[in-house]
């Protein structure tokens, strides 16, 4: 079955009306573009010369890219919102959990949460593949690299769905549940495509995508060069230890990342203003704590000592400022 048909059947089979990529519509734009240019024929000495669409096609680019940009934004916005609500409910406890259920008018059980999480991961992955395929098709038709350039632009605008921290959290959510249920002897229908793997001692969060594409998320902090501890994701999509991120943003643990100046940049991609919308990866933290027990305990002791030191320095500085010393 061709991917276009598979994608349409998947989107039509969703119970809830979800935004998606107009795969068929975008293919039609490209097809019309190719057909229109193919009609510009010159018969020179009996040789048929068929002109191809130029690299910068004003007609095609004027409808193709704006349309795809809006659809990508809608898809990632919907995914982030639903994933955040689901994980907030899963991590909540006591009265707060019941309050969230009531406030969101959510129906169902724990199994329903698992199923929704599975559907969200599938939704993210199949849309990521659809976007990749349609941009590849664009470059093929135009003999250009404009599709690749557009994808880079989408990443800088934070509307690349594989860049979403909530996808990473959902993957960790499924692994955590699978391990918990396996220990308890319960085996509900969990998403089997997500794994925590170690390559030369370095951890990766892996997921098998549609169409045999594999997603690997590196869980090594590029600042301390160790497994991320108390991980956070910046708005650019890069993952760091919370304390390392605070150090990079020139703020103390006491003030936190929200106190970072807008001019502060990501240590990896050098994008500015990425700290304000950071996401604490709680599910990933739980997963790594279970999988790297000895390392986690050692790192916890080190972090506690550093937090105490920074807190002490902070309050000593505040006291000196208060008394005017």
From TrEMBL:
InterPro entries registered for this protein in UniProt: BAH1, SPX_dom, Znf_C3HC4_RING-type, Znf_RING, Znf_RING/FYVE/PHD, Znf_RING_CS
Catalytic activity: S-ubiquitinyl-[E2 ubiquitin-conjugating enzyme]-L-cysteine + [acceptor protein]-L-lysine = [E2 ubiquitin-conjugating enzyme]-L-cysteine + N(6)-ubiquitinyl-[acceptor protein]-L-lysine
Enzyme Commission number(s) of this protein: 2.3.2.27
A GO term, aspect molecular function: zinc ion binding
Keyword Transmembrane in record: no
Record-linked SMART domains: RING (SM00184)
The protein's enzyme class: transferase
PANTHER family listed in its UniProt record: E3 UBIQUITIN-PROTEIN LIGASE BAH1 (PTHR46764), E3 UBIQUITIN-PROTEIN LIGASE NLA (PTHR46764:SF1)
Record's protein name: RING-type E3 ubiquitin transferase
Protein species of origin: Hibiscus trionum
């Amino acid at each position: 079955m061709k991917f276009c048909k598979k994608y349409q059947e998947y989107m039509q089979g969703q119970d809830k009306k979800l935004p998606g990529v107009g795969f068929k519509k975008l293919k039609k734009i490209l097809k019309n573009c190719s057909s229109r240019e193919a009609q510009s024929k010159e018969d020179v000495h009996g040789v048929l010369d068929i002109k191809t669409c130029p690299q910068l096609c004003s007609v095609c680019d004027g409808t193709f890219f704006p349309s795809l940009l809006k659809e990508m934004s809608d898809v990632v916005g919907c995914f982030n919102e639903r994933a955040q609500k689901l994980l907030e409910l899963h991590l909540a406890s006591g009265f707060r959990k019941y309050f969230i259920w009531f406030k969101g008018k959510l129906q169902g059980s724990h199994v329903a949460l698992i199923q929704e999480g599975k559907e969200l991961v599938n939704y993210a992955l199949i849309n990521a593949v659809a976007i990749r395929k349609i941009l590849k098709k664009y470059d093929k038709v135009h003999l250009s690299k404009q599709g690749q350039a557009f994808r880079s632009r989408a990443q800088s605008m934070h509307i690349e769905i594989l860049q979403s921290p909530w996808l990473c959290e959902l993957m960790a959510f499924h692994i955590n549940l699978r391990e918990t249920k396996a220990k308890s002897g319960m085996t509900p229908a969990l998403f089997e495509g997500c794994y925590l793997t170690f390559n030369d001692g370095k951890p990766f969060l892996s997921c098998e995508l549609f169409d045999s594409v594999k997603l690997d998320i590196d869980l090594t902090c590029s600042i301390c060069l160790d497994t991320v501890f108390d991980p956070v994701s910046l708005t650019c999509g890069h993952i760091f230890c919370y304390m390392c991120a605070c150090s990079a943003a020139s703020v103390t643990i006491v003030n936190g990342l929200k106190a970072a100046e807008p001019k502060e940049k990501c240590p990896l991609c050098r994008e500015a203003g990425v700290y304000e919308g950071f996401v604490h990866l709680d599910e990933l933290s739980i997963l790594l704590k279970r999988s790297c027990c000895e390392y986690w305990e050692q790192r916890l002791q080190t972090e506690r000592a550093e937090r105490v030191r920074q807190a002490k320095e902070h309050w000593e500085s505040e006291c000196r400022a208060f008394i005017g010393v």
